[in-house]
């Protein structure tokens, strides 16, 4: 009998909580439907985990742009609000956040993600809710090749990054025997495969192709293989936290050949981890040198003044991605006679952006959401300082 | 194929020993607690991680002081090792007092769950502190003992390549062995060690023989955690970069090493740890060769664990474990 009572109590409390929850969510919905004129933009980047430095810098860049534009949108009668989510570089977390974002009626667009592996499943959810996404850093080909209407990116693609790296490695560095290591993620293996194909076409011999596990700290096993094969270049497809350790452990073993990698290694953490060992490391990056232009220099200074942190390579991309979104929303509002457009219209407006002049990027989206004006940049590290020295840029 | 494997063998052995020594000392913590409480202390991996962070913090602090640079690095290391071991030892005792002792007579599954809970708490507390103080929780300590050494195996026989390592490898290996030998001595030769063995054998009878069971268990946790913390420092010295999640994978593997050697058996844990380190390193260096390129180095864990499963099928009590007779 007592058991029955407690069950009844439990059930009734569950019911009442459920009703309360339903009430609260309903009232929330009413509020935004009444047109309190709040436009929310979400950022979804890794704020914790191995890529936290990059994710945080993207979010801050986006926040900066949003705050700068807030005044302008106020005149149009709208309040801008930033909602930042942490995808933890984890596809599961990304998707569950994406569902929250999709369910929120006042979120019109997303700046994110950094990791391609997270972007791909999360964007399926955005597509369902017709929320426009502009990625400041996801470079895997699959991201846009699926032809989703809401998915865009302002950076280059892996199939441009790999070949650009291969071209430089073979033509300028004269590499003939190349050892490839990748981290088994969508990004890492994607960029490593693209590099491999391009390098083989250019006549280099791939003497090894190995995978490592993200999160480990001892890569001596793979490095021993490199020692036996004795290549004249090592290519790593992965993120800086593993790259830094691989570079350090390889140099400790006396491997002094150039080590090359993609934009995942483009973070100050690489230099922090590898220290002096970072010399003779090359990275291709979809991110340009923020200080290369006048506007870029001003951005870096403002960023430092605002957040008291140095701008990372991707800060400016967070800023420009937000810029593209706000530019498109503004267009959509104007087309809609100053009334707030539907999410679908916003997504269309984002896709139709032409010649948007950002701080570092010039954005024109093609029919699958790739930026036709993206570039690949090549950096070299001569000393333990970040960023490296810009060696050249390759158009798309 | 064989030739290539032999070429890299000396280097593989050296790297495997370094990794295996770390596994072995961490495995000791698992095996001691299991031996005495039949509890798998999943928080042990996180105690190891905490030790790595405490040690790195001390290194960074000490290296910032001017006078330290005139002291030989080895003394700094010993100082940091002792302080860290004491701190993590106390932490382990505290965890036992708070999370395990009240549940000692509960079903075995319950303390297992609190152990997992403690490990999450430790991970996130450390992450929080590290992020608060440095803005990023991947911490890189000062590089110590970076002198390169080369053993000329090639002069031994032309089949082998030379092997090279940093001084830190020797430090890790020697310290780990000192820790293991002194623990072995402690368990087998001292009064407290005898008490621990007695409690492990039969808690109730031991308490009838005027052994203070609670105190003995506390000491077991202190020693196990101190060893784990000290290994954390060694890990930080050897690999340089640490993050709050190193304890998870490494703790798992150390636990498996303990099972491989026979859980509850101190010498078994040492053997299991070294063996697992060697197997893993061997697999990641040679798996491509062995399988003709079908499986790459990323399957090293599959290889190591297949061997583990084989061992456990034919010898379920572990390599050095004794089959336990059913208590009547």
Description:
- The complex is a heterodimer of chains A (396) and B (328).
- Chain A is of the alpha/beta class and 396 residues long.
- Helices cover 49% and strands 18% of the residues of chain A.
- Chain A has two domains: 37-156 and 292-365, Rossmann fold (3-Layer(aba) Sandwich), CATH 3.40.50; 159-285 and 378-395, 3-Layer(aba) Sandwich (Rossmann fold).
- Chain A has a seven-stranded mixed sheet, with helices on both faces. A five-stranded parallel sheet of chain A has the order 2-1-3-4-5.
- Chain A is built from 13 helices and 14 strands.
- Chain B has 328 residues and is mainly α.
- Chain B has a domain at 24-144 and 162-267.
- Chain B is built from eleven helices and four strands.
- In chain B, strands 1-4 form a two-stranded antiparallel ribbon. A two-stranded antiparallel sheet of chain B has the order 2-3.
- The longest helix of chain B is centred in the first third of the chain and has 36 residues, at 2-37.
- Chain B is globular, with a radius of gyration of 21 Å.
- Chain B starts with a helix and ends in a 14-residue tail after the last helix.
- The mean pLDDT of chain B is 86.
- Classes of the chains: A alpha/beta (396), B mainly alpha (328).
- At the A-B interface, strand 7, helix 8, helix 9 and helix 10 of A face helix 1, strand 4, helix 9 and helix 10 of B.
């Amino acid at each position: 009998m007592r058991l029955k009572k407690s069950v009844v109590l439990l059930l009734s409390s569950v019911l009442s909580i459920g009703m309360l929850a339903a009430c609260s969510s309903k009232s929330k919905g009413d509020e935004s439907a009444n047109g309190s004129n709040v436009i929310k933009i979400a950022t979804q980047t890794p704020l914790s985990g191995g890529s936290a430095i990059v994710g945080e810098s993207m979010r801050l860049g986006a926040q900066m742009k949003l705050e700068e534009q807030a005044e302008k949108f106020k005149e149009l009668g709208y309040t801008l609000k930033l909602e930042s989510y942490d995808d933890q570089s984890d596809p599961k977390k990304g998707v569950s956040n994406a569902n929250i974002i999709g369910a929120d009626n006042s979120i019109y667009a997303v700046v994110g993600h950094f990791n391609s592996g997270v972007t791909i499943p999360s964007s399926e959810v955005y597509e369902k809710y017709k929320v426009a996404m502009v990625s400041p850093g996801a470079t895997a080909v699959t991201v846009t090749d699926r032809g989703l209407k809401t998915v865009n990116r302002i950076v280059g693609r892996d199939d441009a990054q790999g070949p650009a790296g291969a071209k430089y490695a073979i033509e300028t560095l004269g590499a003939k025997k190349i050892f490839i290591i990748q981290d088994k993620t969508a990004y890492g293996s994607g960029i490593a495969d693209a590099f491999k194909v391009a390098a083989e076409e250019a006549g280099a011999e791939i003497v090894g192709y190995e995978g490592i596990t993200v999160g480990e700290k001892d890569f001596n096993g793979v490095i021993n293989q490199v020692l036996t094969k004795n290549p004249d270049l090592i290519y790593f497809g992965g993120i800086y936290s593993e790259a830094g350790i691989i570079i350090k452990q390889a140099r400790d073993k006396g491997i002094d050949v150039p080590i090359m990698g993609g934009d995942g290694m483009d973070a100050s953490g690489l230099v922090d981890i590898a220290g002096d060992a970072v010399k003779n490391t090359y990275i291709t990056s979809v991110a340009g040198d923020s200080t290369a232009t006048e506007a870029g220099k001003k951005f870096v200074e403002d960023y430092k003044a605002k957040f008291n942190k140095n701008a990372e390579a991707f800060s400016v991309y967070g800023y420009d991605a937000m810029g593209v979104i706000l530019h498109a929303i503004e267009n959509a509002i104007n087309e809609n006679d100053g009334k707030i457009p539907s999410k679908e219209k916003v997504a269309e407006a984002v896709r139709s952006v032409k010649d948007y002049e950002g701080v570092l990027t010039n954005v024109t989206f093609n029919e699958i959401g790739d930026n036709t004006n993206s570039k690949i940049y090549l950096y070299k590290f001569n000393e333990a300082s970040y960023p490296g020295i810009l060696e050249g840029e390759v158009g798309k | 194929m064989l030739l290539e494997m032999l070429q890299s063998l000396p280097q593989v052995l050296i790297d495997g020993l370094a990794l295996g020594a770390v596994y072995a000392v961490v495995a000791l913590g698992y095996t001691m607690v299991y031996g005495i409480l039949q509890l798998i202390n999943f928080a042990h991996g996180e105690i190891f991680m905490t030790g790595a962070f405490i040690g790195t913090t001390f290194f960074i602090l000490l290296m910032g002081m001017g006078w330290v640079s005139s002291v030989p690095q080895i003394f700094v290391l010993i100082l940091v090792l002792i302080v860290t071991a004491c701190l993590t030892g106390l932490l382990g005792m505290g965890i036992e007092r708070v999370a395990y002792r009240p549940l000692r007579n509960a079903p075995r599954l319950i303390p297992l769950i609190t152990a997992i809970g403690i490990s999450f708490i430790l991970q996130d507390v450390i992450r929080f502190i590290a992020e608060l103080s440095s803005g990023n929780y991947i911490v890189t300590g000062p590089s110590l003992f970076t002198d390169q050494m080369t053993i000329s195996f090639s002069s031994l026989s032309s089949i082998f390549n030379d092997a090279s390592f940093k001084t830190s490898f020797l430090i890790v290996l020697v310290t780990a062995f000192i820790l293991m030998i002194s623990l072995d001595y402690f368990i087998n030769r001292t009064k407290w060690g005898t008490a621990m063995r007695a409690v492990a054998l039969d808690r109730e009878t031991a308490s009838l023989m005027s052994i203070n069971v609670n105190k003995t268990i506390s000491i077991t946790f202190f020693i196990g955690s101190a060893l784990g913390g000290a290994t954390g420092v060694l890990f930080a010295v050897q690999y340089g970069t640490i993050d709050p999640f190193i304890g998870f994978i490494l703790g798992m593997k150390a636990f498996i090493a303990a099972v491989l050697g026979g859980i509850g058996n101190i010498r078994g844990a040492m053997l299991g740890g070294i063996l697992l380190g060697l197997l893993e390193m061997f697999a990641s260096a040679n798996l491509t060769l062995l399988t003709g390129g079908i499986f790459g180095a990323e399957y090293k864990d599959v290889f190591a664990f297949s061997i583990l499963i084989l061992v456990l099928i034919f010898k379920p009590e572990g390599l050095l474990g004794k089959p336990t007779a059913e208590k009547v």
